[in-house]
Amino acid sequence: DTAVSQTPKYLVTQMGNDKSIKCEQNLGHDTMYWYKQDSKKFLKIMFSYNNKELIINETVPNRFSPKSPDKAHLNLHINSLELGDSAVYFCASSQDSSGGARNEQFFGPGTRLTVL
Amino acid sequence: SQQGEEDPQALSIQEGENATMNCSYKTSINNLQWYRQNSGRGLVHLILIRSNEREKHSGRLRVTLDTSKKSSSLLITASRAADTASYFCATDLGYGKLTFGQGTILTVHP
Fold it and tell me: For all residues of chain A together, what is the average pLDDT?
């Protein structure tokens, strides 16, 4: 059973398009995250949700909009895609965000986004 | 700005040798975590050390934390070819916000 799953695994699209990436976790966790990993493998947090509420919102263009329909899902919608959005996007979840071992994060397999 | 900095950026060793990776950070932390990433895969949590702990072990892994120097090290003993991966330290600043270093690429030759 996959703990944190993402779809699609690969996404190739043209500049200016709008696309979504879906994430689901079956671990019963309260907190979910989106990270961006660039071509130099640098991993940076974008957003986190705790029980469907936004708790971390880093400096990310407002073309990126996360949506959490329930605590098991956190989707990422990207409007007007740009070349610089090309990266691998990882979803993750943790038991909650209260600290210590409960912050151990479980990552999905990633979605490789290529903007042409 | 980046919170964690790993050193070295790349490490190449023979199977059976020990591998040591270091991580330095800039601000106070709740805990520090180490993750492994195999090529083309997601990150896998290895070990978490709290800010009031100095050393932690898990199997062949040993992590130390020196909060006065704002540094941590990950030691993998008796390395195996399957340990080949990128290793990241991540500092937990609170609310689950992890800030990752740029990683150490470890290659273990059979």
Answer: 92
Chain-chain contact of B96 with A31 (C-beta, under 8 angstroms)? yes
* pLDDT tens figures, B62-83: 999 999 999 999 999 999 999 9
- Residues 54 through 73 of chain A touching chain B, CB cutoff 8 Å: 55-56
Report residue A106 as tokens.
């479980």
- pLDDT at residue B94 above 50? yes
Spell out which residues of chain A touch residue B44, defining contact as CB-CB under 8 Å. 107
Contact B11, B96 (CB under 8 A): no
Whether the CB-CB separation of B90 and B7 falls below 8 Å is answered with: no
CATH number for B5-109 (one of 3.10.620.30, 1.20.120.1730, 2.60.40.10, 3.40.50.1820): it is 2.60.40.10
Domain A4-115: top CATH class: mainly beta
Answer for the pair A91, A73: CB distance below 8 angstroms, yes or no: no
Chain B: closest CA distance from residue A52 (Å): 14
Which residue among A43, A99, A101 sits closest to B100, beta carbon to beta carbon? A43
In the prediction, which pLDDT does B1 show?
45
